[in-house]
Amino acid sequence: xxxxxxxxxxxxxxEEVEYVNLDQKYDKNTFANQKYFIRTYGCQMNVxxxxxxxxxxxxxxFTSTDELENADIVILNTCAIRENAxxxxxxxxxxxxxxKKDKKNMIVGICGCMAQEENVVNxxxxxxxxxxxxxxxxxxxxxxxxxxxxxxxxxxxxYSCEGKVYENVDYKRDSNIKAWVNIQYGCDKFxxxxxxxxxxxKQRSRRSCMIIKEVEDLVKKGYKxxxxxxxxxxxxxxxxxxxxxxxxxxxxxSDTGIPRVRFVTSHxxxxxxxxxxxxxxxxxxxxxxxxxxxxxxxxxxxxxxxxYTKEEYLxxxxxxxxxxxxxxxxxxxxVGFPNETEEQFQDTLDVVNICKFDSAFTFIFSPREGTPAxxxxxxxxxxxxxxxxxxxxxxxxxxxxxxxxKYLDKTVKVLIEGPSEKDPNKVFGYTETMKxxxxxxxxDKIGEIVDVKITDAKSFSLDGTLV
Length: 467
Ligand code: SAH
Ligand code: SF4
Ligand code: F3S
What we know:
- By secondary structure, the protein is of the alpha/beta class.
- The protein has four domains: about 20-165, Methylthiotransferase, N-terminal domain (Rossmann fold); about 175-285, Transcription Regulator spoIIAA (2-Layer Sandwich); about 290-405, Transcription Regulator spoIIAA (2-Layer Sandwich), CATH 3.30.750.200; about 410-465, CATH 2.40.50.140.
- The protein contains twelve helices and 20 strands.
- The strands form six sheets. The protein has a five-stranded parallel β-sheet with strand order 3-2-4-5-6, sandwiched between helices. A five-stranded mixed β-barrel has the order 16-17-18-20-19.
- The radius of gyration is 23 Å and the shape is globular.
- It starts with 17 loop residues before the first strand and ends with a strand.
């Protein structure tokens, strides 16, 4: 596969980036009475991209439907992070092919990180000819034009225009309570196992003035929470010569007066003391940090290209715990990196036993074509890896439950978001520390931050009642 040689790219300067204002208007009558369906896989980045895609479809007149079979246009926003992504994509495409038998004019579009992978795109173009549009992560702004071209039966070419930063993007946000705000695109870290720098391109930070303007607009609209989004938020602005640091940006976002500020994801290597201070001193910066560990073994971390050791991670963890009161810390862990030994895996368990994470996403290493780690001749069999994952998960779940039990009988602030999926008599929301709570007697509190007394604690959620 021919992935772009992004590693050859040097640090960019602001002049190399084109900041593009998107204010082109489209005719809402073009697809009036037609429906769209979007399926999203992957991380928050994709979830937020789908909000942009929805706004673009609505600018042409499409309205949303929850039923693929009823749709006139189906968009699949893909993720490439692990192997199972392929099965999900081609399984879903099967459904589209079937639906298209009854609905010949249905437009099927594929986008997201897999649409940046040349072999995937080739497979779609040759074997799945019923797919009409393929557009990469750098081309979302082309969507309306691609659809209009398709409508005129013109041929569509996929191309990439990486390096641009788009401003004035319109979003159809899923919530009117909390919002995602991109602060940077791409990633420069090139962890040896990871496909993201190839599918999302090199790091491009938005200008801080534009980010603040977006948050201020959200405050005016009554939003209660923003989450600053990036693969590596604390490396914000580093590729620009004259931009503020992430700590300064966080302070400015906090100063807008938005009731809650969150951010994902932080890389331990870029985590500064200034950042910890900003989190500690501002009540509206939430005491919740997702701090991916990946492995507890310094040797594996080196092979992963993570740029920190077990000891350095633990030191940072301790510093955060000391300075940020009642902070919750969650993580990501990969087991079975090529040739990981039992002893190295024990180092991971050791860190988990010390940090007692609030929760963790755990994965078995999945070789991604084109990344350095995928080329290593791996002697460890899948069964051993599955066994490690199982043992790790047992430990993680034990500590999640322990962390949640600490909330019993306490009164905490919860931002109520909507009706609970499990129990229609309850509503759900999140604590400042990002714990999911199902709340009784608070049906009329949607969109408000309320005091909730915690009555029960499970591994993955809490129950509570309005005080
Ligand atoms: N930018 C974030 C993570 C993005 S991907 C960060 O650096 O923390 C989310 C998680 O997927 C990663 O933290 C990692 O744990 C996992 N992941 C990434 N590539 C993987 C691979 N090839 N195999 C298994 N898990 C992987
Ligand atoms: Fe992938 Fe590493 Fe970048 Fe995270 S920091 S997106 S794991 S390359
Ligand atoms: Fe997946 Fe792309 Fe996110 S690979 S995890 S959707 S950046």
